[in-house]
Fold acid phosphatase.
Amino acid sequence: MAALKYKPIHIIFYVFSLIFTFSANSSKAELPRLLQPAKPDGTLSFLAIGDWGRRGSYNQSDVALQMGEIGQKLDIDFVISTGDNFYDNGLLGLHDPAFQDSFTNIYTAASLQKPWYTVLGNHDYRGDVGAQLSPMLRALDNRWVCMRSFVVSADIVDFLFVDTTPFVDKYFVQPNKHVYDWRGVLPRQTYLNNLLKEVDMALRESTAKWKIVIGHHTIKSAGHHGNTMELETQLLPILHENDVDLYLNGHDHCLEHISSVDSAIYDEWRWIKGVER
C-alpha cells in the first residue's frame, strides 16, 4: 500500500486492532457522512472488532479487557464494528437488555469511551433492525453510531461502511428457520442498485489519500464461509475501479490478511480464537 501511495503508513496489528497514520483532507458524497477529526499531530488510531455481542461470554470480556489496554496505548480515536453485534438474533427491540449486557457493561475501559462506528451483520438482521439503527440507543450510550451504509471522513482517509447482508441470496431463498427483518430493504433489487450507485459515487468523489471500505461479509476468504460470490460480482469491481486500499470485514471467524498480485486491495479480518461462529 505504501509503495503504491508514495506516502508512509504504519500499520500495527493486534487482535481486533489496526492503527493507521494519516494527515488531512476530506470528500463529498450522497451517503450519510460523519466527520472524525485526526489528532493535532495528524495521526489517527482505531480498533476494529466484529461478531462480538455475547453478553460477556465466549471470551468477549477477556477481549474487551485487552482492547481497553491496547486502546490506551494507542490513544485510539474510535472503534469500528463490522457487524453481528448481538447474538444470536440481534436485538429484540429498543429495550432489549442485550444492548447493555453485550455492549455498555462490557466495553467499560476509559480508552473505549469513543465513537463506535457500526454496520449490521446477518445475525443483526434476525432481530429488530430498527432498534439497532434507532437514535434512541445513542441516548442510552452516546458511543453507539449505527447506520446501514455511511461514510466517516477522517482527514486523509475516508471510511465507507456498506450494508452487505442484503446482497446475500441465501438469506432470501434459503433462510432455514431464521426470520430476517427486511424492512427498509424491500424491494431488494432497488435497494441494492441504489446502494451500489451511492457507494460508487462516494468513492469517485472522494479526494482522500486512502479509501477503506468496511462490511460484515467476506469478499475473499479461506475460512468456513469462503468467498461471498454476490460481493465478488457486484461490489468488488467498484472497489477496484475506485482504487480502494483496504476492505475490512467480519463474518468468517478466522485470522486473515489477503492480498493479490492482481489487486491493490488488502482484505483484513481480525478474530480472537475461541469466539463461536
